[in-house]
Design goal:
Elements lengths: L1 H42 L4 H24 L7 H4 L4 H37 L12 H29 L6 H14 L1
Helix pairs in contact: 1-2, 1-5, 2-5, 4-5
């Protein structure tokens, strides 16, 4: 179990690093979007390439932040049901649903994204828009995003199991304390 927990900590560290880094891409996307709007309105100059860069950046943030949202327990759930359950029941339900749904979904999407990306990369696929960009980097982000989500799903399964059997305290309690402290400031 110690080896699995070490693997989980390593996955969490990678996901955390990527999640914090990806946040800066939002700033880049907003600046490019604003710059493009100013150029289009003020100088009547526009480029499909700048629009596609925006889409690539927003897509990258969405795909790479999914694993970070799972790490920070910020994903969508139905609290109306789970709020009435005991903590142990919520942990067991989370573990079960991660195994039955999240793990197969992330595995399948990673498996399907690999040839989809590779074919695009090998062919040098380019956007059909005038002045469009190459497409394979966006498809690579989809592959990496689902691979990262798969790794984080494995980490969450390890942690939920360890919490249920009493090997570790719940890491979510630490995240909740951080959020509460930040909101009180």
């Amino acid at each position: 179990m110690n080896i699995l927990l070490a693997v989980s900590r390593a996955i969490d560290a990678v996901t955390g690093f990527i999640g914090r880094w990806v946040a800066w891409l939002l700033l880049a996307a907003v600046l490019i979007s604003a710059g493009n709007a100013v150029m289009r309105k003020a100088f009547d100059i526009s480029s499909n390439a700048w629009l596609e860069v925006q889409w690539y950046l927003y897509g990258t943030v969405f795909m790479l932040a999914a694993a970070y949202a799972l790490l920070k327990n910020e994903h969508v759930r139905i609290d109306i049901l789970s709020s009435s359950w005991s903590k142990r029941t919520r942990d067991i339900v989370d573990l079960t649903l991660h195994i039955l749904f999240l793990l197969p979904f992330a595995s399948l999407m990673t498996y399907l994204a690999l040839p989809w990306f590779w074919l695009s990369y090998q062919s040098g696929e380019i956007s059909s828009n005038a002045g469009g960009l190459i497409i394979w980097p966006a498809k690579l982000v989809v592959l990496v995003g689902f691979a990262l989500l798969l790794a984080q799903a494995i980490s969450e399964i390890i942690k939920r199991f360890a919490v249920i059997i009493g090997r570790i305290p719940d890491p979510r309690d630490e995240v909740s304390a951080e959020v509460k402290a930040a909101s009180e400031v």
